């Protein structure tokens, strides 16, 4: 299936502002990039680098005035990977690959070592087989018990806050899920990108967990994890996958996101 994603950021810049962005898609299994674009208006030069998670990052200085950042991607994608009939099992910490180890540690927005997080994780997963059953129970509990609502959280909101406030958006759902999984020593990471199945189109966040020797996608916003996705970046939490980080005085005036699916010719 062909999937197109487009994001248009419009900033009001008061003083020259350095920014880093994470807006180009990853090249990996499950998504083949057919075309992509990254433009700034007015035109300014930018540099690129790869971060420690393999995400493609851009860096530039926005001039004073209105600045528009447009990013586009056309990709050949496969549906969200299904869970096999033999459910992926928990992997003991001692057997985890080295590159997954930092995904079981507490992070800025995912305080997996707190007592309240531990108590909720045990409450949700009691008597369940370690691995997939625990993760799906966490995902389902969040979907059923956390209210999805804009304007109730901000960039400082953590998993601990969401646990008590019981409200948030995809970023918050994902942070809480990650914290609960890590408390059970299950590696979990935050992933951001495009999803075709959203009632209100926006850039989206979900979580991946390492069970059964592979990474699997889970989405607590959805009733059931499904749909087509284009992954842009992944990391420990929102601090690692912020799509735009600014170091100066500018205001985001608008963000418009578009997703289109194109059925392939038979």
UniProtKB/TrEMBL annotation:
Keywords: Hydrolase, Protease
Gene3D superfamilies xrefs: 2.60.40.2250, 3.10.620.30
One GO BP: proteolysis
Pfam annotation, one family: Transglut_core
InterPro entries: Papain-like_cys_pep_sf, Transglutaminase-like
Highest taxon, organism lineage: Bacteria
GO MF annotations in UniProt: peptidase activity
Limits of the Transglutaminase-like domain: 162-222
Name the record gives this protein: Transglutaminase-like putative cysteine protease
Organism this protein belongs to: Dyadobacter jejuensis
């Amino acid at each position: 299936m062909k999937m197109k994603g487009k994001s248009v950021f419009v900033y009001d810049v008061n003083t020259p502002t350095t920014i880093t962005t994470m807006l180009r898609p990853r090249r990996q299994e499950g998504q083949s990039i057919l075309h992509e674009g990254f433009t700034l208006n007015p035109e300014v030069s930018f540099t690129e680098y790869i971060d420690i998670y393999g995400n493609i990052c851009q860096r530039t200085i926005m001039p004073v005035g209105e600045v528009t950042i447009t990013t586009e991607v056309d990709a050949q994608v496969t549906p969200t990977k299904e869970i096999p009939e033999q459910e992926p099992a928990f992997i003991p910490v001692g057997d985890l690959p080295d590159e997954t180890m930092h995904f079981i540690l507490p992070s800025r927005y995912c305080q997996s070592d707190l007592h309240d997080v531990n108590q909720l994780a045990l409450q949700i997963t009691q008597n369940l087989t370690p691995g997939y059953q625990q993760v799906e129970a966490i995902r389902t509990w969040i979907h059923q018990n956390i209210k999805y609502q804009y304007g109730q959280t901000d960039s400082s909101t953590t998993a601990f806050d969401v646990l008590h406030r019981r409200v948030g958006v995809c970023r918050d759902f994902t942070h809480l899920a990650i914290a609960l999984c890590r408390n059970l020593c299950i590696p979990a990471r935050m992933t951001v990108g495009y999803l075709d199945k959203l009632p209100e189109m926006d850039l989206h966040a979900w979580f991946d967990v390492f069970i059964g020797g592979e990474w699997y996608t889970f989405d607590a916003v959805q009733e059931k994890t499904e749909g087509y996705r284009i992954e842009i970046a992944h990391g420990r939490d929102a601090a690692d996958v912020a799509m735009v980080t600014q170091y100066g005085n500018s205001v985001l005036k608008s963000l418009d996101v578009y997703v289109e699916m194109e059925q392939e010719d038979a």
